[in-house]
Specification:
There is one protein chain. The protein is of the alpha+beta class. Helix content is about 30%, strand content about 40%. The protein has a 7-stranded mixed sheet with strand order 3-2-1-7-4-5-6.
Length: about 150
């Protein structure tokens, strides 16, 4: 697996016209995954460990996982087709019967939320990482402008 995937993290979340731009990557490259506005807010809450008045859907899923002895093993963002990213959620269940790994197709936004909530690693396939456009400079400029995109 080591050569097939690249470890990434969430580098920033910014509002965008159609939701939120989640900047993911590492020191070599950063790319953007567009998510719905509410998903960007949820991922941000998990990143900041923001207390919530009532459990959100991803909190409920995590509570169910905990009750069943399931943890997020890792997340892998696998491919980009027609401007849509795809991801795999790899879960582990460990109990007195042994260890079981389950791999599920899931939206990258849900994967990012669950992995962030459980502080688990996020990877991208090497093929996809090599294919996406590097947005590191844009993120640096945005951060230098106090989180606001430059005006043209």
């Amino acid at each position: 697996m080591k050569n097939d995937v690249v470890l990434i993290g969430i580098r920033g979340i910014l509002p965008a016209n159609s939701g939120c731009a989640v900047f993911v990557g590492n020191d070599d490259k950063v790319f953007v995954i567009q998510v719905e506005h509410n998903m960007g807010a949820i991922i941000g809450m998990f990143l900041r460990d923001t207390p919530k008045e009532r459990p959100l859907t991803h909190d409920l899923v995590n509570h169910i996982f905990e009750a069943l002895g399931v943890t997020v093993e890792r997340v892998v963002i696998t491919e980009l087709k027609n401007s849509t990213y795809f991801a795999r959620l790899i879960l582990q269940q460990q109990n007195e019967l042994g260890r079981k790994i389950v791999e599920l197709d899931a939206r990258p936004s849900d994967c990012l939320a669950l992995a962030t909530a459980q502080k688990r690693p996020v990877y991208v396939t090497r093929t996809l990482f090599d294919q996406v456009e590097d947005m590191s400079e844009l993120l640096t400029r945005i951060n230098e402008n106090g989180g606001e995109p430059e005006q043209a």
